[in-house]
Amino acid sequence: MNKRFVFLLYNPVAGNKSFPNHLDYFIEVFQNKGYEVHLFRTSSAEDFSNVFENRDVSIYEAIFIAGGDGSVNALVNSMIKLNIDIPLGIIPAGTMNDICYNIGMPMDIRQVIESLSVLQTEYVDVGLVNDQYFLNVCGGGLFMEISQNTDRQLKNVMGRVAYYLTGIQQLPNFKKLNLKISTEEQVIEDEFYFFIVMNGRGAGGFHKLAPEAMMNDGKLDLIAIKVCPLNELSVVFAKILRGNHLSYKNILHIQSDHFSIENMEEDYHVITDIDGEEGPNMPLNLQILSRKLKMILPPKN
């Protein structure tokens, strides 16, 4: 009988550091299905290229990652750049786990492991910004600075609340963005607090940021909050939480397969973010790569 292999990369300190408690269960489930599990332990959202270059990845029927969205992003970038077309399964072991939410994966890790063991696959879209890939989100401005500036331990303990607390502290001193946003159909120049380009529906714990988005629709959704009186921002965030913000006066929403975003103030550095990690410098050239990545999704009933 020929051996069958799967490869699991895991970050033991991601999120609440609980995944090592489930490691043996992962091995048990896949061994019971006839697989030998190969492991790689990482402690950060690193470049995984060396991991793959030093092994024959063609033997694996699936690759799994247990970590946060940043680790997933690093793995996806390495896989695409090395032309590795092997099904990818994600275990939500980070703080936000937005990507898992967007593909309908349960948040209970044992349930996730059981779902992944079915190996039901589907191709999903991947975003490309300049020379970096993203699975869920690319953005800039206030909430992107929060994602990178919030203490990691605080994020692990308090989750989404940590982002809110940091945002409240930074908002009075935050510098607005003067942006030029272009698609093939239109050009918009305006002032914004932040912008976010979504492949999935949610980011940063806001599960309905782009309620019309799907990860296989061949489109990106741009959501941007226009500069407005601070007392109107509470209305904006309330609408975002409910998912009925897309047509609101202080929101810009555009759906396209390509965006160009320019910073019109050259002396101001705009911090950008890709899937929770530091992104490229402006200007940004974004496009969607349709059906670029084969993912393991929850079994359909």
Automatic annotation (TrEMBL):
Family, according to the entry, reads as follows: Belongs to the diacylglycerol/lipid kinase family.
**Any idea what this protein is called?**
YegS/Rv2252/BmrU family lipid kinase
The chain's coiled-coil residues are: none
Domain (DAGKc) spans: 1-133
Q: Which UniProt keywords apply?
A: ATP-binding, Kinase, Lipid biosynthesis, Lipid metabolism, Magnesium, Metal-binding, Nucleotide-binding, Phospholipid biosynthesis, Phospholipid metabolism, Transferase
Q: Which InterPro entries does the UniProt entry name for this protein?
A: ATP-NAD_kinase_N, Diacylglycerol/lipid_kinase, Diacylglycerol_kinase_cat_dom, Lipid_Phosphate_FormReg, NAD/diacylglycerol_kinase_sf, YegS/DAGK_C
Instruction: Give GO cellular component annotations, separated by semicolons.
Output: plasma membrane
